[in-house]
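Box S1 | Example of a co-folding query
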Amino acid sequence: MSEQERIAQLRAELHRNNYNYYVLNAPAISDQDFDALLRELQELEAHHPELFDPNSPTQRVGSDLSNKFESVEHQYPMLSLANTYNREEVRQFYERVSEGLAGEPFEICCELKFDGLSISLVYEDGRLVRAVTRGDGVRGDDVTANIRTIRTIPLQLGSQAPMPAVAADGQGDLFAAPALEPVVSWPQRFEIRGEVLMPWASFEALNIEREAEEEPLFANPRNAASGTLKSKQTAIVAKRKLDAYLYYLLGEDLPAEGHYENMEAARSWGFKVSNHMCKARTLDEVFAFIDYWDVERKNLPIATDGIVLKVNSLRQQQTLGMTAKSPRWAIAYKFQAEQASTVLREVTFQVGRTGAVTPVANMDPVQLSGTIVRRATLHNADFVAQLDLHVGDHVLVEKGGEIIPKIVAVDEAFAHQPRGPKVEFINRCPECGAELVRYEGEAAWYCPNETGCPPQIKGRIEHFVSRRAMNIDTLGPETIEDFVSRGLIRNYADLYGLQVDHLSGANDSRIRSARKTIKAIEDSRQVPFERVLFAMGIRFVGESVAKTLTRNFKTIDALAQASLDDFLQINGIGTAIAESVIQWFRNSDNLRLVERLRGYGLQLQLSDDVLSQQSDRLAGRTIVISGVFAHHSRDEYKALIEQHGGKNTGSISAKTSFILAGENMGPAKLEKAQKLGVAIIHEDEFLKMIED
Ligand code: IVH
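Box S1 (continued) | Returned holo structure for 2-(butylsulfanyl)adenosine
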C-alpha cells in the first residue's frame, strides 16, 4: 500500500472510531490503539504536506495560533422561534396551524429545546466546508476552525456504520425514536443547523479548573459554550469538550418530505440527532410530550430550556409560511424555571482567600428542584441594592441554568405586609473589622487586611498546600483551621517550622500521620519554581501565568524587580497581572515571606537543568509559527522559542522578525510575509540557530 493510500485508510478508520466513541458512546477500540493510529497519521501527514486536509482527524486537536472570524452571509437567514411559557398559547398555535391548513390533517414533530448557541453547518460532497454562528440572523461569524474540534460533528460523512436508533446511553425512553432504514445518500450540498452545547459534566469540571486558576467562573453551560466558541485558539476549544445536537436540515434536494424523516436520514449520515423526538398527531400527544420532559429533562447530561414544536410536513410548512421574524409552522414552549417562595432571615457576609466579600442570603428552608435550599448567593453589593431586600421579606428563589440558587425578586404577593430593616452592605470586614475597599472596575468589595484576616490566612494556606501547588495534601482544612486558631501558623512559611509533636500532640495514634505530613512538607522543597510561584497565591497568577513568568524572569529576584514595561513585553501578560505582581512585591510582609521560604530551601529559581537549556539566542526576536512540522510539535517550538529568549506571536506584522515555517504554510500568511518582507526560516535552519 502506498503512503497516500495508508493516509486515506487511517483517516477513514479514525473518523469511524471517532464516531463510535463520541456520537454512539460505544468505543470499538482502546484509547491506546486510537492514539497509535492518530500518531501514525500525524507522522505520515508531516511527510506529505501536499495531502493536507483541514477535515483530517488530526485537525481535531486544534492549534494555538490566533484564528480570525470573518463575517459571512447565511444562505438562508437564521430566524428565531416564537416563544411561549403557557399551554393556552400552545393550544392557540395548534389551532392556528389547523386553520392555516384548512382542516387538512397534520403531524407535529416534538423536540427538546437545547440551551446552547445555534450553529449553521454547510456540507459539500459529504465534507464540512463552513460553520457559521447565528450572528444577527443574516450574517454570522465563520467559526469553522473551532467547530472542527468538536468531536461529535462529522468532518466527513459516511464514515460510520448505520446508527441504531437507541439513546446514546443505551437506555430507551418513552419517546425514543423507532429504528428506521438508514437513508444513505446525502445531497451534494446542504445546510444543517443545530445547537453547540457544553455538557453539565464538562461545565462543572471547567469551572473547578477556572477556580484554581483564579479565572472568573461561567454562570451556566450556555455562557461557557459561547465563550469557548469565541476563543481565538482552536486548541482551547478542543480541550473544552463541547458537544452538538443537530435539529434542522435545509437544502434543495432533501431526502424526505417530512422534517422528522430528514433528521432520521441525517442521523444515518453520522450526525448527532437527538433520540428524543416524536411525531404527535393530536394536541393531547403534544401535551404528553411536554409533561414528560418537564420532569425528565433534569436527568439529561445537557441543559434544555423547553420544547420545540414543528409542523412535520415541509409542504405544509411552506403553506403556513413566515411572519417577519419567525416561521408560522413552529413554536418554542419554554419551561418555567422552578421557583419557590420563602422568608429571608438574615444576610451574612463571606470572606474568601482573596479577601473578596460575598453576601449570602439565609432563608427558611424550602424545597426547590428536588433539593432543600437554605442559602442563596447575592453576588455583590450592586445586586443587593437592586433587589431592595429587607429582613423578613418573602423572596422568590430560582434554580435556573445556574447551579447555585439565587434570589430573583421580593415576592409581591406579600407586599402589603410591614417590612423589617433594609439589608445594607457592610463597610467593615465581618472577620477582622478592617475597612473594606473597592478596586476600580470590580463589583466586589475586598478586605485589605491580607495578613491579619483569618479566612484569608486559612484560604492562602489551603491554596499553598493544594495538589497542583505544593502538594502537601495530607494537611486538610480542619487541621489548618486548628493550627491557625492555636496560633501555630500564621502564613505558609510557618509550615516549614512545624514538627511532628506539633501535629500529633500527646496522641500516639496520630504520630504516623503527623510524620507523613512533615515528610510531605519536607519533600515540597523540591517542587519546581513555577509551582511555588503559583502556590504563593498572588492575585491573577494561576498555573499558566506562573509558568510564563518563571520562564521569562528565571529567578524570584528578577521577578520582584521587574517593571511594568518588563511585564508588558511578555506574550500573554497584561496590565492587570503585571500590577498585581508589582503590588505584591511592594508589600514588606510578602518580602519577608519570600526570604523565609528561601531560608527553608524552596525552589525560587528555575532549576539548573532547565536553566542550562536556556539561552538568549533569540532575544528580542518576535517569531510567528506556521505550517506543519516534522521534528517537533508546534507547542514544542513555542517552548523552544521562549526557552531561548524569543517571543512567539500569532499574526504577522512589521514587528515580526521571522516566520518559522513548516510545510503547508497558509497562502494568506505567505502573501503577507512577502508583502512585509518578513524572512521565512524552515525548521532545520531554525534548529541550527538555537543549537550553536
Ligand atoms: S429549530 C426555524 N429546534 O432555539 C427553526 N431550534 O429561538 C429554527 N433551539 O435559535 C430553529 N433547540 O438556537 C430548533 N430542537 C430545536 C432547538 C432549537 C434549541 C434554539 C435555536 C434557535 C432558538 C429558537
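Residues 538 and 583 are 9 Å apart (CA to CA). The chain has six domains: 3-59, 71-334, 339-414, 454-526, 529-611, 615-691.
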